[in-house]
Amino acid sequence: MGSILSGAEAVAFARSLPGVDAVGLEARAAGLGTRSIKKESKAHAIDLAIGMIDLTTLEGADTPGKVRTLCAKAVRPDGDAPPVAAVCVYPAMAATAAEALKGSGVKVASVATGFPAGQVPLDVRLADTEAAVAAGADEVDMVVNRGAFLAGDLERVFDEIRAVKAACGEARLKVILETGELVTYDNVRRASHLAMHAGADFIKTSTGKVGVNATLPVTLLMMQAVRDFRAATGVQVGVKPAGGIRTTKDAIKYLVCVNEVLGEDWLSPHWFRFGASSLLNDLLMQRQKLTTGHYSGPDYVTVD
Amino acid sequence: MFEYSPAPEAVRPDIREHYGLFVDGKFVDAEDGSTFKSVNPATEETLFTVAEAGEADVASAVAAARRAFETVWGPMSGAERGKYLFRIARLLQERSREFAVAESIDNGKPIKETRDFDVPTAAQHFFYHAGWADKLDYAGLGPDPRPLGVVGQVIPWNFPLLMLAWKIAPALACGNTTVLKPAETTPLTALMFAELCQEAELPPGVVNILPGAGATGAALVHSPVDKIAFTGSTAVGRSIAKAVAGSKKRLTLELGGKAANIVYDDAPIDQAVEGVVNGIFFNQGHVCCAGSRLLVQESIAEDVLERLKDRVATLRVGDPLDKNTDVGAINSAEQLTRIEALAETGAADGAEAWQPECELPERGFWFRPTVFTGVQQSMRIAREEIFGPVLSVLTFRTPDEAIAKANNTPYGLSAGVWTEQGSKILWTAERLRAGVVWANTFNRFDAASPFGGLKESGYGREGGRQGLEAYLNV
Fold first, then answer.
1. Residue B8 lies in a domain
2. pLDDT digits (tens, 9 = 90+) for A232-269
3. Are B2 and A23 within 8 A, CB to CB?
4. Would the ipTM clear 0.90, i.e. be above it?
5. Which of A123, A233, B221, B449 is the most exposed place for a label (fewest CB within 10 A)?
C-alpha cells in the first residue's frame, strides 16, 4: 500500500494520471441512472438521502432568524423522517447555527476561504477558516484556487489546501473543486487526487454559484478517485455532490452510483453528502407518498 | 446495505397460444402440420407453439414473394416503398415496449437491453432505409441500380428482431421481396413483426416469415431465390456457400468472431474496463462481435484485472424482465451445454477461471459471468467462439505483439482499441484485420455504419450506403 504524498510528489502523480474518456464516463453514468428503485428500496433510499443532506443556505440575505428556521427543520424535517446530516452556512452564521443545533447531532458546516470565488489573499482565507471553526463549525467547506490550478500552479493549490486543513484543527475539511470551472474531466480527476493527498476529508463538486454544478458523470469520476485513493493509501475520503440536485429521482441516481461504484462503506452520512436545499422537500413529499399512497403538495411540507 | 427491490416490467404482450407461418400476407399452418414449441429460457416454460415450415411451405412462400416482386413491389416507385418502411418504423416505435418484453421473454436477454438497444435500433434501421428507398440512384453504386428479386434470409437467435431489421429493411428499400427464417428458439418477435406488416397494410407476399430449424433453412437455400443472406455460425455459413456455389444466387454471410479488445497502458482505465465488460457480457456474450479476448498490456494487467473483477462482481444476473438485470438467461439448453463444455476445456488447458459470487435462479438456463486469466494463445478458449459470457484474458508486451495476437485467429469480425493516444489508435486500427474496429468504445452500432467481417467472419456489409449493395444489381 502506498502512502500520502508530499506536495511535489502529489503534483507529479496528478500530472501522470491517465486521461478520462468523456464518452465512456458519461455512458456509464447514464447506465447507472437507469436503475429502477422501487418499494422498500425506494423508502430506504429516501431516508438514507435525507440523512445525507447538508441543508444549505448561502445567501447575502441570510439572517439569524432564517438560519434558526433552517436548523429547526434540519433536526426534525417531517414526522418521523430522520434528521439531515448538517446545516451549511456562511461563517458569519456559524455561531447561530451551532447554538440552534446544540445537542441535536446535526453538524454545523461552514463555507470558508472566501467562498465562492476564493479570490482573496491566503491569510484572509485562513482567517476566514479559523473564524468559522471558532464559531462552532464541525466541518469546513473550502474552495480550491481554480486560478492557480488553471494556470498550472498545482503546487500552490496543494499547499493552500494543506494550510487550510491545518487551520481547520479538528473540523472535517470538504474541498470544493468547482468542477464547473475546471471544466474537463481530466482536470477534475487531477484536482481530486491533489486535494486528497493534501488532506481533504471530503471532495465536493461545486459551490452552487456557477453555471454548471454537480453532474452524475463528474460525481462518478470523483467516486472512482476516492476508491482509487483508498486502494492506494488506505485512507477513506468522502464525496459531496452539490448544486442542482433537486429531486428524489436524481438523489437516488447518486445513491445507486455510490452503491455500485464505492459500495456499502460509503453509504453513510459520514462518507457521502448532498449539498442541497430544495431536495429535502421533494424527498419528504415522496416519503409521504410512500406512506399514504398519494401525492401531497408543497403545502404539506414546510418552507425553509 | 442498499438492496434493490424487484422491479419487474409490468407490460405483458399479447402472446398467442399458436402461431402459423406468415405466407402471402396471411398466417397459415404448415402443409404437413408440423409444429414446434418455443420456450422461455429463464423459466423453461413453453410459451407457444408455432408451425414449422417444410419444403412445400418454402415453395409457396417463395412463389408468393416472386408474385409480389413482379406485380407490386418491384414496379412500385422508391418513394412509395419508402412510405411503407416509414410506416413500419413508426409502428415498431409505437409498439416498442410490447416488442421489448416479448423479445426478453422469448430470448432470455434483459429487458434493459431490449428496451434500450434491440427495439430502438431495429426501428432506426427501418427509418434509415426508408430514407434510402427513393435515393438509390445517388448511393454511389452506379446509375439506376435494380433490385435482385426474391431474397431468402436466415437469422440467428441472439438479436432476433434487430437481425430481422438488418435483413428486411435494406431488402425492401432496394425493391426486393423477402422470405425470412427466424431462429428456431426465437421466432416470437418475427411473428409479431408479421402482424405489424399486416397492420401497415404491406402488400401480401412482400414479407414472408417461415419459422423452422436447420431443415427449413436448407430448403430456403435450395429454393429458387435470387439471393441468400445469412447471419449465424461459420460452419453453417460454409455449407450455405457450398450449396449456392455455381448457381446465380448471390450470397452475403455474417458469421462468427473471436474479437480482441486491446488495452494499452495509456488507456483510460475505468472506461476501458467498462468497455471490456460491455464487450463480453452484453447480451450474455451471445454476440458475434463480442470482445471475447482481452489483450491487456502486461505492465497494467494486474491493475486492470482487479478493476475488472470488482466491476463484474456488481453485475446483476437473473430475471430478464427485472429492469435492474444486467445479465439474463442463456438462450437454450443446447447453447448452455456448449458454453459449459468450452469453459471446461479452459480449466483443463491450465487457465484460471474466476466467477463472481451471485445466486442463479433454480430453473432456466444460466451461466455465471466468467473471466479466464493466464490464457495462452494455444488454448481452445482463446481460439474458438464460445458465444457466452466467458472472457479470456491474455497479455502483450509491445504494440506489435498485440497486433500479432489479435490477428492470429481465423475470424475477423471486430476488434477494440483502448488508448488515450490518437496516433496509436490509427496505427493499431490500420493493422487489425477486422471488419469493425472500435476505438475507446465497444459494441456500438448505427444504421448508417456498415457492419461485416473479414476472413471466416463472412463477406458483405449490412447497414450504411455499403449495405445497400448486397441487395442491388449495380
1. no
2. 999 999 999 999 999 999 999 999 999 999 999 999 99
3. no
4. yes
5. A123
